[in-house]
Design goal:
This protein is an alpha/beta fold. It is built from 13 helices and 15 strands.
Length: about 425
């Protein structure tokens, strides 16, 4: 067989006797990875789907097929580029931007069925919808069932069959979300009742976490504690782990320093995977924390605010100007604005866990109203209300939904479409009680 390997991960290496890096390359007839030292391809940050797209383009050319016909695969490469959270710059930006345009006009029966199944058929699909709705549904099949299901959907040309497959993908993703929530809650309880809550690198071994969601659980821990997080599960032959990191901590390099206690590892500065013998997990945890140079400032969560913006400056034209900067993602982040002393006269809790909070706001010195929504702010709102005003006042608010508060928001404006009506709303990234 002729073996061709495509990859986009950092190249693993060992130190030789002189302390020089010696890169470990697998045996194959060809290895396509722009991160190889001798690769002259100018853009090094393609994701796996992007590398595959480049391979197809060259393959078409070599086989006498019009190279431009390979462009039809850009919409699929865009899904991979957005979901793999690579830098949305240079060629990645071109793939993502053009791919989103194609997805919004797609003729792919399977993608259209999945868009409809996830109630996105009346929306303009953007990077958020791909990264947090469409992508996870495609990904869930490989995690909980077989990736063949997703492949069948993408290749399907029968609408009824596509509808059934799309429903199965969506159901699997809902199942994955429930499993993730249960695992995250159990691990948080373990951390809070142990010395791990003081660690600057979290290494959690929980045998019953489904191997396929370990990376998602690690990501949730990283978001909650803002420290590098590794979740290790039982595995078939030995424990396997998934790691997620913060910008200030290069996970791949730090794992390299622990390679003597690891069976296998690989990945990026922000995400990696590993295999380890069970008896080495405690040593591994200790070594990572002993080597850790993160400061308190490094692990303090930060949100970059682009501009203070008064609510009466929020309008449809501003939202359209911001949309010109899309697609948003890593290295091309969504702009965030901030304003102080926003009058909130009503709150409403939504969602299965009642953790989505909707704020009904008024412009200062005006009767003009504006809605704001914070998708994971319900618990935080209840905590700060109880801390500031006590449990009786909190219960009164929960029963009546009426408040009279001034809050500071970090937000992005967007156009909300419902039943054919368009209105402005704020998507709140963070909030606090005004001083």
């Amino acid at each position: 067989m002729t073996v061709v390997i495509t990859d986009h991960h950092d190249i693993p290496f060992v130190d030789d006797d002189n302390g020089k890096k010696e890169f470990v390359i697998p045996e194959a007839d060809a290895i396509i990875n722009p991160k190889q030292k001798d690769c002259k391809y100018p853009f090094k940050s393609l994701c796996g789907a992007g590398v595959a797209l480049k391979f197809v383009q060259v393959l078409y050319e070599k086989m006498g097929i019009d190279k431009q016909k390979a462009y039809e695969f850009i919409e699929y490469a865009a899904v991979g580029t957005i979901c793999d959270v690579v830098d949305l710059l240079d060629e990645n930006r071109i793939i993502a931007k053009n791919g989103l345009e194609m997805i919004n006009k797609t003729e792919n029966v399977g993608i259209k069925a999945l868009i409809k199944e996830t109630s996105l058929d009346e929306k303009r699909i953007n990077s958020y919808h791909i990264g947090f709705v469409i992508g996870p549904c495609i990904n869930a099949t490989g995690r909980l069932d077989s990736a063949t299901l997703a492949l069948k959907l993408l290749l399907c040309d029968d609408e009824n069959e596509a509808e059934g497959l799309a429903k199965k993908l969506h159901d699997l993703n809902v199942q994955r979300q429930d499993m993730t929530t249960d695992s995250v809650n159990a691990i948080i309880e373990t951390i809070e009742n142990s010395d791990m809550k003081n660690h600057k690198v979290l290494v959690v071994y929980k045998e019953d976490v489904h191997e396929s969601i370990a990376g998602i659980v690690a990501g949730r821990l990283k978001e909650r504690y803002n420290v590098p997080s590794i979740v290790i599960t039982k595995g078939e032959k030995m424990p396997k782990g998934s790691a997620r990191s913060i910008e200030e901590y290069n996970m791949f390099e730090e794992l390299t320093k622990c390679k003597k206690v690891l069976k296998k590892f690989g990945g990026h500065p922000l995400a990696a995977g590993l295999s380890i013998e069970e008896e080495n997990i405690d040593i591994f945890r200790q070594t990572l924390n002993d080597n850790c140079t993160l400061t308190e400032d490094d692990i303090t969560p930060k949100i970059r605010i682009d501009k203070q913006l008064k609510l009466n400056e929020v309008n449809f034209n501003l939202v359209k100007e911001i949309e010109k900067l899309e697609p948003f993602g890593k290295s091309n982040s969504h702009p965030y604005f901030a304003e102080k002393n926003i009058n909130v006269f009503r709150v409403y809790f939504m969602g299965k866990e009642k953790n989505i909070v909707k704020f009904f706001c008024r412009n200062v010195n005006s009767f003009e109203k504006l809605d704001a929504i914070c998708f994971d702010g319900g618990d935080k709102f209840k905590e700060i209300m109880e801390e500031k005003y006590g449990i009786e006042k909190l219960n009164e608010i929960l029963q009546s939904n009426k408040v009279n508060l001034e809050l500071d928001f970090i937000f992005s404006p967007e156009i909300n479409e419902f039943n054919g009506n368009k209105s402005l709303q704020l998507v709140v990234k963070d909030f606090r009680i005004s001083k």
